[in-house]
Amino acid sequence: MTPTERTIARLPAHLRRYVVSQDYDAYTPRDQAVWRHILGQLRSHLADKAHSVYLEGLEATGIGLERIPSLDEMNEKLSKLGWAAVGVRGFIPPAVFTELQALGVLAIAADIRTHEHIPYTPAPDIVHESAGHAPIIANARYAEYLKRCGLVGFKAIATVEDEAVFQAIRNLSVVKEDPTATQEEIAHAQARLEAANQSRRYVSESTRASRLYWWTAEYGMIGGMEQPRIYGAGLLSSIGEAKHCLTDAVKKLPLCVACADTEYDITRMQPQLFVARDFEHLFEVLNEFEATLAWKRGGDYGLNEAIQARTVNHLVLADGREITARVVEALPGARPVAEGLTSALVRLEGPVMVSRESKAEGKPWPGLALVAFGEGQLPDKGPFKLELASGLKIQGFAVGGGEVLNLRGELDGRPVELPSVAKLFLSTGLPSVAGGPADPGAWDRWFGELNAFAEGEGEAKAREKKATALHPSLAALYREVRTMRESKAINLARLEQISNAATDFRDDWLLKVEVEELKKSARA
Predict the structure, then answer these.
(1) What pLDDT score does 129 carry?
(2) Is the dihedral of CA 479, 516, 178, 173 positive or negative?
(3) Distance in angstroms between the alpha carbons of the first and the last residue of the chain
(4) 306: closest CA among 286, 323, 288, 289?
(5) Helix-strand-coil percent breakdown of the chain, rounded to 5?
(6) How many whole angstroms separate alpha carbon 274 and alpha carbon 255?
(7) CB 3.0 to 4.6 Å from 386: which of 190, 265, 374, 376, for a disulfide?
(8) What is the structure's pLDDT at 455?
(9) What is the pTM of this model?
(10) Does 80 have pLDDT greater than 70?
């Protein structure tokens, strides 16, 4: 097995489905020229402007100037740093991206931007994902921050609107990368994204986590406020951003947890950036942010976040059981049950999955479920009556395995409408409420929600159009120049002919740059 195949084999099945082959031979000579041009400019500009680990990090993670990196070569190098990389296609769901990152796996977009998008690409590509994210991983403390940041993003609660925004962003990037897309199609995709953003009822935990990630791992600066260095991948992989961010036009702010409440616009250069004192500063801010999440707070706060989100999340009960479902209602009791918890009863909409330590136990329950808070014991079988400290009284018939029938209940003397058939869980507290299913792999196997993600027909067609958009004659010229470069058999007369022939392609300036570079090296 290759290093990349070994990495993929270690991934859970629900993550492996997002992995694609790099297909290195599919990169064209012009793709290689795009890589060389960008990396040459970036290395030259960033040598004294990026964090001191940048240049050594390129070497340490298998990223060179002359050609697009091979994921196998990257994995050979990354394994020494406790990391790995896999190829993916474009935007992948945030929960997948963050889970991979928490596992120490970089999701590398296998495609490379076109020469028209050299300064900025509307879609993830191998320049951003490898030359941007990988080099600073050579710093062990920063590498640990990336994993922690991935875990926090994975545990944050996302809303149904967050999913709509993700799909709209994914669609817009596909349309913009399609060389045959019309202005009408682009305008529609942009309008769809605007509508998705406007549909948000509130700023979710997941959105706040993504902002923290953006202002640190993507667009972060580090060091003194007067002369900060660059470490964020978005700045390290864009020559335009890398130059712009160091000018007085960009306001520099000391990094603080308020960055999680600061919006960003992916369509333009950022008007302000946050500067961390050092990598330890990143952990200070991350810890402060993490303490605000339902994952850490649990109790009534966590329940309210889950109810607002209208998505599948999971409750962690006092005995360690994890209950995955949609939380639809929490009824307050007369007295607190535990610290931060006054809810007496929680209603869950099925399917409901029970797990421990992120491992599912048995088949999911298809119907409704309840969680009652307080000291009490549910018999395995037979009639039961419970009187809990919250003021909740509940009675019914236990069938076995937590299934109950003929439920009746009252809370502080008032009748409570309960389902006639349900799963009933008892707990003395609620230490955590976290985003998504507790066991994503089991949830995927049972319900196939993650299976629904695949490269759509539009994406596949856009990629095919990109691959065939290059005129055959121009492609042949690029191929000839690439062969000269690799063989070091440079023919100046032929280069002059290629330069003259390139004038037939007015929109392509990169070939002329390649030719001039070879001429210069031959004369040196």
Answers:
(1) 87
(2) positive
(3) 43
(4) 323
(5) 45, 20, 35
(6) 5
(7) 376
(8) 46
(9) 0.91
(10) yes
